Amino acid sequence: xxxxxxxxxxxxxxxxxxxxxxxxxxxxxxxxxxxxxxxxxxxxxxxxxxxxxxxxxxxxxxxxxxxxxxxxxxxxxxxxxxxxxxxxxxxxxxxxxxxxxxxxxxxxxxxxxxx
Amino acid sequence: xxxxxxxxxxxxxxxxxxxxxxxxxxxxxxxxxxxxxxxxxxxxxxxxxxxxxxxxxxxxxxxxxxxxxxxxxxxxxxxxxxxxxxxxxxxxxxxxxxxxxxxxxxxxx
Lengths: 115, 109
Hints:
The structure holds 2 protein chains of 2 kinds. Chain A is an all-beta fold. Helix content of chain A is 0%, strand content 55%. Chain A has no helices and 11 strands. In chain A, the strands form 2 sheets. In chain A, strands 2, 4, 5, 6, 9, 10 and 11 form a 7-stranded mixed sheet that branches. In chain A, strands 1-3-8-7 form a 4-stranded antiparallel sheet, with no helix packed on it. Chain B is mostly beta strands.
């Protein structure tokens, strides 16, 4: 019954490794997002995909690469992990079009710790 | 870039008290959203506002879309311990989407 799910919930890894976080939504939404929440709880959008097409790509290092195999999935791959990548990463989705297109539903988050 | 400033940054209140918080932006918004984040969870949508001056309630929560379209307000009446969390405003100026800096609420039983 989970609307937006992410795996894994916790990820601890060494600097320099490559890792992926998976996200799936069963709400039938067209748009999916990745957010990063830092230690001060500031939430910043990283990417947005609409029907598998990238529509928002904020200024993030190109070590971060989103991949959307279909509109229900948006995965985040991170290469050459750095200490500063440690954060909680949230996936979200929203319906479109219409005014509800901005009402986003969030997953439970993935806490990434880079050692 | 766009920044949504929320105030206060944190609040410590007694159970039963009313709470007010606000959010201001440097840009005009066409939609204002209020989210709550519980510890260890993702943000959950509380209220969505779509029109300047709009006042919308969800149980003990009431939010208003400021008439200048550059601010929004959230009130919680008769707070209870489960109101604890971080409250975020959010919205899309144009094609982007931004979250506010958050207001952390602690309710003391």
